[in-house]
């Protein structure tokens, strides 16, 4: 039992009694059984008729880039005037890149005729995979997205009349706000609420939300708890796994039976959570072993391993009897206050290789149309430089990838590359022109939510009246 579970057991009875029992079980399962066996809270006996939900399968996969992806070095200016201004502002930083950011080194993107006043854009040279997906109509870019409570202008920001997200430039709080619409301490993420809303499409709700080992908030709902699947597969108690033959079975059954039925109600609940964790892990590993194999090779990197595990989980969808799944994986290192020229290109290359491999795996499985991947991050970064790095920003640009994507397009607004324009919150921090909810809503509709359920999962969506970006078909 982990330290969090022991701490919960040590609380006064009165305090325990005041907690919602279901919420306590979620936490206890994740902290106690989950720390040792995989974070899972499930009611396997929940009832509804379950008729081949995998025949109507869809999945959302979030790649969360922790630290704040530099939007200005993700979608770079390519037309001569814009690039000249960009290179002037970032001159000292650009000089230190080992892989050049010169205009001729960028990967140019096509946009719709007349869009952005004729300005052009390109990707950094490390993102050849995303460039090929974009050109092939399987990737799009959602521009200038960020947490908002209501539309904000530079004037309303500077005169403090705008309602702003709490603790705007804080890593933890803005990660939480991206995932759950509120700063650190939020309980439910919008992907978890999406899974709640589509629970009737899932034969096995315990596998409807899967995390690669972090960012659990994003895929936590009122009735949905994340199941943890690191690259090596479902977590097991190592000293049990190492045993052979009958001894392993005896030890497994012994742990499943703890605590005994004559203990307190609380301890019985913890024991039930442990048994469910053991059973779910066994079922997941069996399903993964029975799943079709794919030949796609993934890069040997953290993000590559996580996306391989997601692909293996998706391949097992029929054995798991799931019709809707949400996934979240994470990649750190994007807080590039310093050494950006050395660190960011390698991060971009690893991200690019992982996403390209994942896209190929989905094509191999015949699921490209049914799986949509997208990126997210704490925030963007400043256009102005800070010695050999950049500071925390606000709005940023993100990728969405899959066969259902209206690819080869940039959706949303792209402010000019300059300091002091009408959407500059200072030092080139972009004031978002799309709220996170406006990016999330098309994903939710594609996932199958009706308008009532969508607005329940995204309660601030109604604050924004501008048309939603139509980056998904169907």
Structure description:
- The radius of gyration is 23 Å and the shape is globular.
- Strands 1, 5, 6, 7, 8, 9, 12, 13 and 14 form a 9-stranded mixed beta sheet that branches. Strands 2-4-3 form a 3-stranded antiparallel beta sheet. Strands 10-11 form a two-stranded antiparallel sheet.
- Helix 3 crosses helix 12.
- With 474 residues, the protein is α/β, with parallel strands linked by helices.
- The protein starts with a helix and ends in a 17-residue tail after the last helix.
Task: Determine the N-to-C terminus distance.
Answer: 46 Å
Mean pLDDT: 85
Number of strands: 14
Helix coverage percent: 25-40%
What is the C-alpha radius of gyration, as a whole number of Å?
23 Å
Largest sheet: 9 strands, mixed
Task: Report the uncertain regions.
Answer: 1-51
Strand content: 5-15%
The number of helical segments is: 17
- General form: globular
Class based on secondary structure composition and strand pairing: alpha/beta
Give a nutshell description of this structure.
The protein is 38% helix and 14% strand. With 474 residues, the chain is an alpha/beta fold.
Could you give the topology of this structure?
Layout: H1 3-9, H2 13-18, H3 21-37, E1 58-65, E2 76-77, H4 80-89, H5 91-94, E3 107-109, E4 121-123, H6 128-135, E5 139-146, H7 154-158, H8 171-180, H9 190-197, E6 209-211, E7 227-228, H10 238-241, H11 245-256, H12 265-290, H13 302-315, H14 317-320, E8 324-331, H15 340-364, E9 371-377, E10 381-386, E11 389-392, E12 396-401, E13 410-411, E14 434-435, H16 436-447, H17 451-457
Parallel strand pairs: 1-8, 1-9, 5-13, 5-14, 6-7, 6-8
Antiparallel strand pairs: 2-4, 3-4, 5-12, 9-12, 10-11
Helix pairs in contact: 1-3, 3-12, 6-15, 9-17, 13-15
């Amino acid at each position: 039992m982990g330290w969090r579970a022991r701490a919960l057991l040590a609380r006064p009875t009165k305090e325990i009694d005041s907690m919602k029992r279901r919420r306590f079980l979620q936490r206890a399962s994740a902290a106690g059984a989950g720390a040792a066996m995989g974070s899972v809270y499930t009611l396997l006996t929940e009832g509804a008729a379950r008729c081949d939900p995998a025949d109507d399968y869809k999945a959302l996969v979030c790649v969360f880039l922790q630290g704040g992806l530099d939007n200005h070095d993700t979608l770079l200016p390519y037309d001569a005037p814009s690039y000249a201004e960009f290179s002037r502002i970032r001159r000292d930083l650009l000089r230190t890149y080992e892989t050049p950011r010169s205009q001729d080194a960028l990967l140019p993107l096509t946009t719709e005729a007349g869009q952005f006043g004729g300005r052009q854009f390109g990707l950094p040279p490390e993102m050849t995979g995303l460039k090929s997906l974009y050109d092939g109509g399987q990737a799009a870019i959602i521009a200038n997205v960020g947490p908002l409570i209501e539309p904000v202008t530079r004037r309303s920001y500077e005169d403090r009349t705008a309602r702003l997200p709490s603790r705007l430039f804080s890593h933890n709080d803005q990660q939480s706000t991206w995932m759950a619409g509120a700063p650190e301490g939020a309980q439910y993420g919008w992907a978890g609420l999406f899974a709640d809303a589509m629970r009737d499409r899932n034969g096995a709700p315990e596998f409807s939300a899967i995390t690669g080992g972090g960012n659990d908030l994003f895929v936590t709902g009122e009735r949905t708890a994340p199941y943890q699947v690191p690259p090596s597969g479902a977590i097991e108690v190592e000293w049990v796994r190492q045993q052979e033959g009958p001894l392993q079975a005896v030890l497994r059954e012994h742990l499943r039976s703890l605590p005994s039925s004559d203990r307190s109600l609380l301890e019985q609940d913890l024991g039930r959570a442990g048994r469910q964790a053991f059973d779910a892990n066994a079922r997941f590993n069996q399903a993964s072993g029975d799943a079709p194999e794919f030949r796609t090779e993934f890069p040997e990197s953290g993000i590559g391993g996580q996306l391989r595990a997601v692909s293996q989980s998706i391949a097992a969808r029929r054995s798991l009897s799931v019709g809707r799944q949400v996934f979240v994986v994470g990649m750190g290192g994007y807080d590039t206050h310093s050494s950006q020229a050395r660190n960011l290109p390698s991060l971009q290359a690893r991200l690019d290789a992982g996403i390209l491999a994942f896209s190929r795996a989905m094509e191999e499985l015949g699921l490209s149309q049914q799986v949509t991947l997208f990126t997210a991050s704490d925030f963007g970064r400043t256009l102005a430089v800070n010695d050999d790095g950049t500071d925390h920003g606000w709005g940023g640009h993100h990728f969405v990838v899959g066969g259902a994507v209206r690819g080869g397009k940039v959706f949303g607004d792209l402010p000019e590359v300059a300091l002091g324009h009408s959407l500059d919150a200072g030092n080139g921090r972009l004031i978002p022109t799309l709220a996170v909810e406006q990016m999330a809503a098309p994903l939710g509709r594609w996932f199958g939510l009706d308008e009532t359920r969508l607005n329940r999962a995204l309660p601030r969506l109604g604050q924004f009246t501008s048309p939603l970006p139509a980056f998904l078909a169907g």
